[in-house]
Amino acid sequence: MTPFEHFIQWLVSIGPQAAFWGMIKILFLLGFFLYIAFALVVIRQTSLMTKTLIGGFAAPIKIVVLAHLGVAIAVFLLALMIL
Amino acid sequence: MPDIFVSSPSPSEPTTAVEELPEKSERKPLPPKAGKKSHRFHHHFLSLINHPRDLRFESQGEKEKIVLLLRRHPITNLPWMALVFVMALTPSVLNHYFGLDFIPLNFRLMGGVGWYLLTFAIGLANFLCWFFTVEIITDERVIDIDFMTILNRHVGSARIANIEEVNAQTGGFIRSLFNYGDVTIQTAGASPEIIFDAVPEPAYVTELLNESISQIKHRRER
To answer: Assign residue B99 a region: left if phi > 0, alpha if psi is -120 to 50, beta otherwise?
Structure first.
């Protein structure tokens, strides 16, 4: 039996409603994972921006984008736990 | 007869004659203390800053001084701010008018969290692009630092001596009302045109640039 056939058999065994929400859960996790990637890109770009224009505002902006990454990771873990 | 008891002058007392302080208006202003911020924090968020003291840019020369820093007028942020506002209200409006009870509670919760994260991301990305997209006029050059999106950066510069023509354009109701517009700088350098997009007080910017050009020409003639 191929992995795809295993997957179909599992979907059939859990019922259509649970299968639907299972798919939605996978989409949610994928979305939150991509969001973590986005938060990392924002940190990298902010670092580039603060090197381009240098001033006293760099530290607060870096704190905000780091907190943003922290929240993105926390949300991903929360989704893993409660979905 | 020698003095038997003479108190020694206390170290706190001045031993030399005290000079009279000049009038307040005659005193020279003190230089800003090293390490202390000479500008308030919120000044960084203005869209027109004259002689910003604690700001530098990447390719700034040692003796080069920033004369003017410009950003797009704050009113140009209104479209994305409106979008963020509408997005922030959407979940409660949907819940009120359509009812989302058919969705399991945990999915509703995570859907809401995801939606607000997305809303915050749109706001953050737009704010960063606005904040770091700056036009700088120094005593030597004009520099255009452009973050079109959070991933794209474009930096253009031209020597003031190479500027051939400066034009300001303010068209439309909103631009006239809030006094902002585009300043187009034609140069003889590698990048033939630099555009300051939607900057406040374009007439003032043009005047300042023309003044700088004439000063440099005078210096050359001497």
So the answer is: left
